[in-house]
């Protein structure tokens, strides 16, 4: 969502117009960012001038992770490293148990330290806990105190656990299919009649193409106008400057 609809706390002008034009059509929001719960994302969108969306139509990698764990073991026990969005999602379906966890779950946000690393590593090596990461992004864009910053993503924060244990994590977020499938189920549509709009080729576009969705990349995020397309990533149906250009292409 950051890079498509807004930058930090600032809505992109084309995004406000686009979302007003899209209001009567089924749509959902998916994000690899596990830091905020859907309610706070909805609050954020409303503050920036968007119509407040139904929280059920905001699907985060934290929610998807909790669903994935629950499908494998109802009332799972977990040890989690991450911010409120992840902790709240896991607590709704599982039991926090840093001594006997079935899963070590890594998200994003501040707080990871030597003690948490040590606990997670020992749960994996000594008790057979499964390592799970909310999303594979090695870095993410953020705005702190009005300045653009690059922060470590889930892929970077899970790396110390991987290095110490030799265990590869289960990855939940884009480009894996679960987030897309959850969103499609909530709007009652299938891949062949959905359009995925994103700003990152390696996650947003790559995952959607694998599922057979139509795709549109907007170059309002990190992937800037003029940047060459990555060789190992399938191309989208539309590679556009912004949402205003997409709105015109769609006839909205």
User: CATH class of the largest domain, anyone?
Assistant: Alpha Beta
The residue ranges in which pLDDT falls below 50 over 5 or more consecutive positions are none
Largest sheet descriptor = 5 strands, parallel
Shape: globular
Rg (CA only)? 18 Å
- The CATH superfamily name of the largest domain is HAD superfamily/HAD-like
Q: Report the structural category.
A: alpha/beta
Whole-number count of domains: 2
- Strand percentage lies at 15-25%
Helix content range: 25-40%
| Terminal residue distance | 20 Å
CATH 2nd-level architecture of the largest domain: 3-Layer(aba) Sandwich
Can you walk me through this structure?
This protein folds into 2 domains: 6-60 and 175-250, Rossmann fold (3-Layer(aba) Sandwich), CATH 3.40.50.1000; 62-171, Rossmann fold (3-Layer(aba) Sandwich). Helix content is 38%, strand content 20%. It has helices at 13-22, 38-47, 61-72, 84-93, 114-127, 154-157, 159-165, 178-187, 201-211, 243-250, and strands at residues 6-7, 10-11, 29-31, 58-60, 77-81, 95-96, 103-106, 130-133, 139-144, 147-152, 170-171, 195-198, 214-218, 238-240.
